[in-house]
Design a protein that fits this description.
The longest helix is centred in the first third of the chain and has 33 residues. The chain folds into 2 domains: 130 residues, Cytochrome Bc1 Complex, Chain D, domain 2, CATH 1.10.760.10; 94 residues, no CATH class. Strands 1-2-3 form a 3-stranded antiparallel sheet. The chain is mostly helical and 299 residues long. The structure holds heme C (HEC) (2 copies).
Amino acid sequence: MKKILKWIGFTFGGLIVVLVLFYLVIHISTERRLNKIYTLEIADFEVSFDPLTIERGRHFADNVFLCGACHGMDYSGQIELDDPLFGRLVFPNITEIKDEYSNAELERLIRYGIKRDGKPAVLMPSFEYTHLSDPDMEAIIAYIKNLPAVENDLPETKLGPLARIFLGLGVFEHFISAEDIDHYAERPPAPEPGPTAEYGKYLASTCQTCHGPGYSGGKGPGEPPDMPIATNITAHRETGIGLWSIDDFYRAMREGIRPNGEKLDEFMPYLNFRGMTDMELDALWAFLQSLEPREFGNR
Ligand code: HEC
Ligand code: HEC
């Protein structure tokens, strides 16, 4: 009997040692990734603050590229999640940070996911913005720089053990965008704005975080269980929007209503998208229709 107890004690003790070591390795490796200093430099540049440019920037930031969906429509930020196991995820108050950033540093953050101090931004989906044209980027920067300051003190993001384990094991998609973007790649020329599939593709990067890189929806890796699941927006007839008309698409994007009258969950940011122009919706529609239809859930 004593022998068995001793044996159980050893096994249990051994297991704890292994778990502690495992977590230690995870902690050290994620700490290194989160504190890595990226050295990419961008030469500073001027942006125009004329009302048309600022309005273009507002349109892109609020209605297309969803900056305001995360940072709040007044850009004063919010605490997204505060969980002892997962950690605290904070969308910072941009109105209080923007003056510390030069235009070039803002571009580096938005396009490459590198913060002013050279460390990578977590969760900020720069992979969706890395391809933006210079004029569009400048318009967004002009809008951000021109925002009125709003007081809202927020704590910093702090990853808990579960988020670290997911990050360490490579479960998340694009949790640290800076790691996924080639900072030195030449940018392909941006398409002319127009109701074309090419321009739709340019805009549709903003759908990928939720609908997946192949736009067929399904639960994203590491997404919390209570997060609404994005549906299939390829033209798959059974599981996607293959039987929809363009008017159905307009209605979903502007009013959040499916053809059968069902209301979409507000996690689908139609409250932002409803400000898109007809041309932009036509372009998105042309692009989504041009994709190979995929079955739901293949991301
Ligand atoms: C999915 C949510 C999300 C979206 C969409 C998003 N951001 Fe962020 N953003 C974040 C998070 C989270 C951070 C904090 C990153 C960190 O502290 O590591 C951040 C950080 C920032 C910062 C400050 C970095 C610092 O020094 O603290 C700025 C400026 C910013 N975002 C601008 C933008 C702009 C402009 C857009 C749209 C083009 C945008 N964000 C879209 C989540 C988002
Ligand atoms: C923040 C996450 C998120 C983003 C970003 C997002 N969606 Fe969605 N979308 C969802 C979710 C979740 C649903 C399902 C809502 C429901 O089931 O009530 C959905 C549903 C839809 C639907 C309805 C299809 C159906 O029958 O369920 C369409 C159309 C759609 N999205 C298009 C888009 C397009 C186009 C973009 C990019 C321009 C986009 N979405 C970006 C989360 C998102």
